[in-house]
Design goal:
5 strands, about 675 residues, mainly alpha, single chain, 5-stranded mixed sheet, about 5% strand
Length: about 675
């Protein structure tokens, strides 16, 4: 009891002057520390701290003033207000200033990179009331079908290829079963944002295995997201496999960095060995086994990632195989790289020879033929440019200029900095370009090659914009007392808490860097947002496709193009005919006489025996006119022919879509249209 009273007696009373004085001194001390920190940061610190919140406020204000109806042949660029572009400008200014000022904490560049991802990739998700991009809708339909059938979808037709690479879709079917959600539509709209946020981790691991200079690390990450215009981040097996593939590459590069650091330590006397500092510090057992390759647990993780890639996508395992093969050319890399190369090549061959054998056998001839046409493979994705809308021509040239600029910057970095040639970036840059020899990949191989080469190219470009006076392998974080730092290995990628010594960057170079980054961002905006007039779907279009999906099993659905929000829904129950998929003379015939082509298509007997429907939407017409697939006169003639045909009865209609049911002479199938249609 006495001890308790004594302890109570020494407790400070908040009402006493002594306590108020202590509290006052504490607050005053914190205020002085804050003023000192702000004074030390100078104008750079103020810019870094103010530009980020100001940019986010401008972005939110811009979103509230967007009018989607203003989209034309330049897509979302025509609908975004000036405040949006001002927000990107502020982010760029703040980021460049954050890298310029060494006294600014490391978290600020990270905050700016995350804000850049948010401003670019969350914008469509926040603005659009429906899922963006027809291919994303197709993948939603495939998940739905596999969920209904519990796996392989029978009667898949042209979409049977997804039965042979089902990993991505089966994963989301498992997620739906576990969460009780009815459809992936609940989160598929946010997939681009999720994908790009997930990419930050592998990029940091990759770049930190090369250097500890925070400017090069975060500069490379920023450049990646400022130049990734290809748009393969939507809900798709490609986006999923790409994240996993980059993770595998980052793990391999980190392991190579550890092995090089251990080799450098081995050349030092035991008492002078500094060990592995920073992010590369591993357990003693891990370090001991690094010279011999992989430990069991990390390699098991790599195997799981490779298995997920191989079972989900056709192209990504080949890209990864070529990258590992080129990395294995370095003799010192082989103990680390060869097991991964064997795993990815072996699993790919095994999968293609068993599960995917039907697809591989059917397309083997075309794959072999494409090996001799690298020039065609490279330019196949640039067809019909002369017939496209003026805004699309501008967008395509902006894409090409951005791609060429990034590769030229990477090439200049390889010429200027010898050290970047010795850290594994050259194989990662060249490997995707090798696949231009293999296949056109439906005209997308050039763009896919750019996407896979971009992580290496972005870091190389960063070495030009933020190169210090002498970039060298980092010295250890700390040496034992009385010991000096050991010599560099020339290719060491160890990590420490401080970057190598560098000449301070002046305001002139900072301004020039900001101008370059803004130019690259402009190219990104053209490539990423320039086609939104056809990638965006209105709720009215989605309602029309839901109506079509509810038609009886065995129905045939005829459309002008496949650019629809859910045209593949219940594809296992419906037969789909896309007139715009024709080529050569058939496509020319559609452009010249769309009414006759439509009539002949409907008169052809439906093998499934069900009714036939015709659907025409705003996005279909936008695709034809923007890409130059069909002239405006042809789309108008098609719409007029459908509206005036005595054999087509409108069963669903709104301002953005119309659905007709084909009623052949004699009135067969006249009463099979589902209820719930719009105004006929």
């Amino acid at each position: 009891m006495t001890d308790a009273l004594e302890r109570e007696d020494v407790r400070p009373d908040s009402r006493t002057p002594a306590h108020r004085s202590t509290t006052h001194r504490s607050k005053a001390q914190r205020a002085r520390e804050l003023r000192a920190a702000l004074s030390e940061a100078g104008w750079s610190g103020w810019v870094v701290r103010c530009a980020l919140p100001a940019a986010l406020v401008l972005w939110l204000l811009a979103l509230s003033r967007v009018e989607l109806s203003r989209m034309g042949d330049l897509g979302l660029l025509q609908a975004l207000p000036p405040a949006y572009f001002a927000a990107l400008g502020l982010l760029t200014l703040g980021f460049v200033t954050a890298l310029r000022a060494p006294q600014v904490r490391h978290r600020w560049p990270a905050a700016y990179v995350l804000a850049l991802i948010l401003v670019i990739h969350a914008t469509p998700s926040l603005l659009y009331p429906t899922l963006r991009y027809a291919w994303a809708w197709k993948h939603v339909a495939i998940v739905d079908a596999m969920l209904r059938h519990g796996g392989t979808v029978p009667g898949a037709g042209k979409l049977d290829v997804y039965n042979q690479w089902p990993g991505f879709f089966e994963l989301h079917a498992v997620i739906l079963r576990a969460t009780g959600l009815d459809s992936v539509l609940g989160y598929a709209s946010w997939y681009p944002l999720i994908t790009n946020l997930l990419l930050v981790g592998p990029l940091l691991m990759l770049y930190r295995s090369i250097t500890t200079d925070r400017r090069l690390v975060w500069g490379g990450v920023w450049l990646y997201f400022a130049t990734a215009w290809v748009g393969q981040d939507y809900f798709s097996p490609q986006a999923f496999a790409y994240v996993l593939s980059l993770t595998v590459i980052a793990l391999v590069m980190r392991r190579l960095a550890v092995a090089r650091s251990l080799a450098a330590d081995a050349r030092e006397p035991r008492e002078r060995r500094p060990g592995l500092p920073g992010a590369l510090a591993l357990s003693a057992a891990d370090e001991a086994s690094a010279r011999g390759g992989w430990r069991a647990a990390p390699f098991a993780l790599v195997l799981v990632l490779i298995a997920a890639i191989v079972s989900s996508h056709q192209l990504t395992p080949i890209m990864l195989t070529v990258s590992m093969a080129l990395l294995a050319l370095g003799r010192r890399n082989r103990r680390t790289v060869l097991p991964v190369l064997a795993a990815v090549a072996g699993l790919t061959v095994l999968w293609d020879a068993t599960v995917a054998r039907p697809f591989v056998s059917e397309h083997l001839t075309s794959l072999v033929t494409a090996l001799g046409s690298p020039d065609h493979n490279a330019v196949a994705g640039l067809a019909r440019l002369g017939q496209a809308a003026p805004g699309q021509i501008m967008t395509s040239w902006a894409d090409r200029c951005l791609t060429a600029t990034v590769f030229l910057l990477a090439l200049a970095a390889l010429i200027r900095h010898r050290w970047v040639r010795r850290v594994g970036l050259v194989p990662l840059l060249v490997a995707p370009l090798v696949l231009l020899l293999a296949n056109a990949y439906d005209g997308e191989m050039l763009f896919r090659a750019y996407l896979f080469a971009l992580p290496a190219a972005a870091f190389l470009a960063a070495t030009l914009l933020w190169s210090p006076r002498a970039v060298r392998p980092p010295a250890p974080k700390s040496d034992p007392p009385g010991a000096s730092s050991g010599p560099s290995s020339g290719t060491s990628s160890g990590t420490s808490s401080a970057p190598p010594a560098a000449r301070p960057v002046g305001p002139l170079r900072t301004g020039a860097t900001a101008v370059v980054l803004l130019g690259l961002l402009a190219g990104l905006l053209f490539g990423y947002f320039g086609k939104e007039s056809m990638n965006y779907f209105t709720p009215q279009e989605a309602a029309a496709l839901r109506y079509v999906a509810a038609t009886p099993p065995g129905s045939r659905v005829v459309s002008l193009t496949a650019n629809e929000p859910g045209g593949e829904m219940r594809y296992d129950d419906h037969d789909r005919l896309v007139l715009g998929d024709a080529a050569g003379a058939d496509l020319q015939r559609l452009a010249a006489n769309p009414g006759d082509v439509l009539r002949l298509a409907l008169e052809r007997p439906n093998a499934a025996g069900g009714p036939s429907y015709v659907i025409l939407t705003r996005a279909q017409i936008a695709e034809c006119e923007l890409t130059g697939l069909l002239p405006a006169s042809a789309t108008k003639a098609f719409a007029a022919a459908a509206a005036s045909s005595p054999d087509l009865r409108p069963v669903f209609s709104n301002e953005d879509a119309v659905v007709y049911q084909y009623v052949p002479p004699g009135g067969a199938n006249a009463a099979t249209a589902p209820a719930g249609g719009g105004t006929p």
